[in-house]
Write the structure tokens for this entry.
Amino acid sequence: MKAASTKIKIVSYTVLILGLVFFFGPFAILLINAFKSNAEIISSPLALPSSISFKQFGEAMEQMRYWTAFGNSTIITLGSLFVILLCSAMTAHYFVRHKTRANTIWFLAMVASMIIPFQSIMIPLVSIYGAKLGWIQSMPHLTLMFMYVGFGSSLAVFIYHGFIKGIPLELEEASHIDGCTRVQSFFRIVLPILLPTSVTIGILHVLWMWNDFLLPLLILQNAGAGKYTLPLAIQVFKGTYSNDYEKYLPAVVMVVIPIMMIYLFAQRFIIQGVTQGSVK
């Protein structure tokens, strides 16, 4: 028995180590090449840098207007996330507590909408909100946030819905007896209970919105460099015939590091929240 258990542990740890190398390897290569010149990157991409210098990082920050793009990404991501969390929690709560045929159809429609590829509707979106309504030209950031809310709410409602089904209705009824209205009951009783699930949804959506390139490209490409998000701002180092790798790679590192730190800090909430929501 002990021999069999030891073999299982060896195999498990081997698989985990290989998985770590597989997933961390590309980031390690990126980090190594971020300190190299263009000639070193092209000649020996897997070799260690000859010297460590942060000069490229400073030049990249200045050329891509890093802090401006960082502020744009932060405002768009956090603003969209706040609306998604609040509206999705209220919507899911209404669907669970009011089980009508219409609500069931609406819920199933929202779940079904998650399988629609964005590429199949991006041209109509740009045509409607750009050519017809003019929102893209007049308020590009708000238009981008509006679209993020629309595309992100379905998944949030789905996860909230599974979790809220496990919250006893008696808790809300007891608060009504104590004098709370339905709105007060939701914000004082239900919403605090949803905190682990809200953290999970928040992490998933922050990862998506922070790293998204295609939708900001469609909405912000003509808005000017001062309105770019970080994934768009780093494109300044990519040319038609050549790329400035010694600045492009440090820029990618500076874009990835903040969101990676958030993910590493809060990753345990993802499995916890999804598991709790799926078994309720």
